[in-house]
Amino acid sequence: MYFLKRIIFAIPLLLVISALAFALVHLAPGGPFDRERAPASPEIERALKAKYHLDEPVWKQYFRYLGDLAHGDFGVSLKYRNHTVNDIIAQGLPVSMLLGALAFGFAMGVGLPVGFFTAARRGRWPDYAGSFLATLAVCVPGFVVAPLLILFFSIKWKLLPVGLWETPWHMILPPVALGLFFAGKVARLFREGMLNAMQSDFITAARAKGLGENMLLLKHACRIAVLPVVSYSGPMLADLLTGSFVIENIFQIPGIGVFLVNSSLNRDYTLVVGLSLLYAALLIGLNLMVDFAYTLLDPRVKYE
Amino acid sequence: MNDSDESRKPSAEGSQARRDTAPIFSLSSTKGGEGRGEEAQGFQAQIPSPQPSPRSGGERVTGASRCAQGNLTPGQRAWQRFRRNRAAVVSAWYLVFLLLAIIAWPAILKISGGTFAQVHNPNQLSDAAFAPPGMQYWFGTDVHGRDVFSRILFGAQISLLVGIVGAGVSLVIGVLWGAIAGYVGGRMDSALMRIVDVLYSLPTVIFVIVLITTFGEMLKQSHFVGSSPALAGALRVTLLFVGLGAVSWLTMARIVRGQVLSLRTRAFVEASRALGGGPVRILARHIIPNVFGVVITYLALTVPAIILYESFLSYLGLGVQPPMASWGTLIAEGVGQINPIRIYWWLIAFPGGVLVTTLLALNFLGDGLRDAWDVKGRA
Questions:
Q1: How far is CA B46 from CA B29, B36, B42, B43, B69, in A?
Q2: Rounded to an integer, what distance in angstroms lies between the CA atom of residue A133 and that of residue A154?
Q3: With contact defined as beta carbons under 8 Å apart, do B291 and B256 qualify?
């Protein structure tokens, strides 16, 4: 029931977002045709504007856009005019999603074991080393990691390709560069969750009953400790999707992030609004899924 | 008479908490640090060995020393715990030295004059393009023969300024928002927090990008650019402050609200209210001083987040514009020079290294503060 309500609530929210994005891009001076060669004559420019309804008042354009949207039509990109926004999304989104999913896998695959290990060896040197590395990972932005990875793995040792997105070999460095930050974050969260869990009463009770330390950590503490990580994974997926702009740019990956920055600079009205809506919808959906997963993992949590 | 008697406890607690935040700040000044240090030294001698985990260590110490040091306020205890966190203290010193270097370097250039100033002028083009690090150019030179060392120190001004002011903006919005929501409660609370929830679920990066391109373009077309480029640059940086601050206050608002909500029902607040304390008095004397530790802690963690954000935007070409530089733009320039023939590693390693070490120091500082104030959980 609660989740149904949230799904329904998402619709007006998306409307507000679309209106906001629409207003913001139209507020910016200049238009989508400014950066092209000057049109042959004012008539041609006028005709071009009329064709894309840019001569109408903004509110009218907005309602026209909404009408098209109701049919699932995001409109035609004003910059890449032989592509619809739907085309661009259909081409770029799967690539960005795969990149994001791989990076997510990397972050979890590295972050959780490191977090567990540092918590289990608390206060000894493996803890210091692991925690330091995790904090370091949180402090190294993707655009520093990516060039360094390219410099060493691609240029110096010639192990992996420099860029592009074709074979599985191309899909190693970008997810690592993208996911490293989040691996550090997950490790820190999980370590903290483990330490908090170890102080709770049920752990003391289990220990008093004579349960082995490993069993205690693996079976009991983990279940509680993973909750902060789960609630972080919603924002994390969002950041993975949006953080991929830079990584896609550096590795020349034909994802969707490149379009967002460019379209915003190019005043490509339809593309900006379409992509903002897409990201917002994805985020809302992902957050919903995360909250739902939370209720499955922790029966104490009840939404009403 | 009765009134003041009853309310003495909470208000004393409040004022002490406020007073005790002073040492946290005086971290940057040696005087305050040493004065406190002697106190802490004697205290430290009682502890057999440095505690492995700052949090559990801190708890044990306060428990054991409560009888001996019964007159310690929460702030003083926090300060002692902080001092024992070696990583946090080292980080604080690193940041102090960085700040000193940033402030002193332009002055040194001005005073020394001559060829030294010429060589290290961050905007001075020279023929020595891509000179590797050496005696003359400590961190090498870039494509235009500019001194990388100087450019990093001048870029630091922008990066740190954006981080600090942006965090300040997020502080003001977040604390006000959270305090009002938590204190007023009821409908107001649910309305304000629903807005926060909604904003949380939005792709903030996209919002910032659209915002900055929109207003950046407006700025470019305005008459400032022609008349005074410096002013236009300053406005552009202001845009960054506002944009980044505007998207970074959400967690702060949530944390402050949670704290205020739990404080509001505490006995000493009830007492003050029963004695006729108005909302302003309660907020100012009881709530805000008690939220202080949490806010300072989270603020210290917001600064690196915003610096990272700024470098991200500058990397995309949306942040500060040349000839101004920030660490993000310096790294972007270095990445632009990657090619398979020659590796100009110093163009990435030095700006990246300074950025990473600064973020690391800020994070350790924030963690140290959090452990010292024993702030539980982050939203």
A1: 27, 17, 7, 6, 11
A2: 24
A3: yes
- Report field, pTM of the whole predicted structure over 0.95: no
Alpha helices in B45-147, H assignment, sequence order: 54-65, 74-84, 86-112, 114-120
For B175-234, the pLDDT digits (tens) are: 888 888 888 888 888 888 888 877 776 677 777 877 787 777 777 776 666 666 677 777
Dihedral class, residue B121 (left if φ above 0, else alpha if ψ from -120 to 50, else beta): beta
Chain B, 214-233: which have a CB under 8 Å from a chain A CB?
Answer: 214-215, 217-218, 221
Residues with Cβ within 8 Å of residue B87, at least 6 apart in sequence: B364, B367, B368
Own/partner pairs, B32-38, CB within 8 angstroms, 24+ separation: B36/B79, B36/B83, B37/B83
Residue type, B246: A
Tokens of A222: 């983990």
Is the pLDDT confidence value at A189 over 80?
Answer: yes
> What is the DSSP secondary-structure string of chain A?
-HHHHHHHHHHHHHHHHHHHHHHHHHHSSS-TTTTSPPPSSHHHHHHHHHHTTTTS-HHHHHHHHHHHHHTT---B-SSSTTSBHHHHHHHHHHHHHHHHHHHHHHHHHHHHHHHHHHHHTTTSHHHHHHHHHHHHHHHS-HHHHHHHHIIIIIIIS--S-SS-S-SGGGGSHHHHHHHHHHHHHHHHHHHHHHHHHHTSHHHHHHHHTT--HHHIIIIIIHHHHHHHHHHHHHHHHHHHHHHHHHHHHHHT--SSHHHHHHHHHHT-HHHHHHHHHHHHHHHHHHHHHHHHHHHHH-TT----
B126-163 pLDDT per residue, tens: 776 677 777 777 777 777 777 788 888 888 888 888 88
Residue of B nearest to A198 (CA): B56
Q: How far apart are CA B96 and CA B361, in angstroms?
A: 11
DSSP 8-state class, residue B341: S
Contact of A124 with chain B, judged by CB distance below 8 Å, is answered with yes
pLDDT of residue A61: 80
Q: How far apart are CA A201 and CA A248, in angstroms?
A: 47
- Which residues in chain B have their CB less than 8 angstroms from residue A30's CB? 217, 221
pLDDT score recorded for residue B54:
43
Q: Is B92 an 8 Å CB contact of chain A? A: no
Supply the pLDDT for residue B69.
52
Tell me, what's the pLDDT at B249?
87
- Among the residue ranges A18-27, A169-178, B187-196, B268-277, the one predicted with the least confidence is A18-27
- Mean pLDDT, chain B, whole residue set: 73
Contacts of A243 in chain B (CB under 8 A): 205
Q: What is the mean pLDDT of residues B288-309?
A: 83
Compare CB distances from A150 to B200, B331, B338 and report the shortest one's residue.
B338
The whole-angstrom separation of Cα A51 and Cα A37 is 18
pLDDT at A280: 83
Please report where in the chains the tokens 């530089």 appear, as a residue.
Answer: B325
Q: B327-336 and B288-315 helices cross at what angle (nearest 10)? A: 30
Whether the pLDDT of residue A294 is over 70: the answer is yes
Q: Which residues of B touch A144 (CB under 8 A)?
A: 331, 348, 352, 355-356
In the prediction, which pLDDT does B45 show? 38
What was the pLDDT predicted at B58? 40
Report the percentage of chain A scoring pLDDT > 90: 9
Question: If you average pLDDT over residues A263-269, what whole number do you get?
Answer: 76
